[in-house]
Write a structure and sequence with these properties.
This protein is of the alpha/beta class. The protein is 35% helix and 21% strand. The strands form 2 sheets. It has a 6-stranded parallel beta sheet, sandwiched between helices.
Length: 195
């Protein structure tokens, strides 16, 4: 009887292991969202600009913010519809509302350049980011993101290309190449469906 128990238990255990080892192919958006949330990011999916405004207003109310830093003229149009003050000068204590270059699906990272950050390093910016991005900005990996920047800005490639890699400021990267350059931010993502 013990022999049959071992035989049937080992068979079910090996089949469970086999199921767990099977690769799962996710779409780019599902892969990004999965990795982004696992890193501690807060994600809000929007299908209209009105939803973007409503979600931004809810984020502001939730955190009791009255001022945002915003350097993008298109995003300033959104902030003007809300009861808050917008400024264009970075302040470490005031949340930063911005766009990005690309969303990196395989890592859940968000890629920025001097178009959003100017000459500022990510570590010198506020701890709270609110990022507006579109589904057309999703790319498979960092290489595709860099290629996209090169293609989109041919002849005038932006500088200061970097990414936010962790979405809670309590986490520190173990990568010795990033020592002293913390790219962790509390981050909200307003992802707009544009495809």
């Amino acid at each position: 009887m013990n022999f049959f128990k071992k035989l049937f238990n080992s068979n079910t255990e090996s089949s469970k292991e086999e199921i767990n080892r099977q690769p799962v192919d996710l779409s780019l958006d599902d892969l990004f969202v999965h990795n982004f949330i696992n890193k501690g990011g807060k994600f809000l999916y929007c299908t209209s600009i009105n939803e973007v405004i409503i979600n931004l207003e809810n984020i502001i109310k939730e955190n009791k913010w009255s001022t945002l830093t915003c350097t993008d003229f298109n995003l300033l149009k959104i902030t003007q519809q809300l009861p808050l003050t917008s400024q264009q000068v970075f302040d470490k204590n005031i949340p930063f509302f911005t766009t990005c270059e690309h969303l990196i699906a395989d890592k859940g990272d968000i890629l920025f350049s001097s178009n959003q950050l100017g000459s500022q390093k990510i570590a010198a910016l506020p701890d709270f980011f609110i990022v507006y991005a579109t589904t057309s900005q999703l790319v498979k990996n960092t290489s595709e993101g860099l290629t996209g920047i090169k293609t989109h800005f041919s002849g005038n490639i932006p500088t200061n290309i970097s990414s936010v890699t962790n979405y809670t400021t309590e986490r520190n990267s173990d990568d010795f190449l990033n020592y002293g350059n913390c790219n962790s931010k509390n981050l909200y993502l307003l992802l707009f469906e544009d495809l």
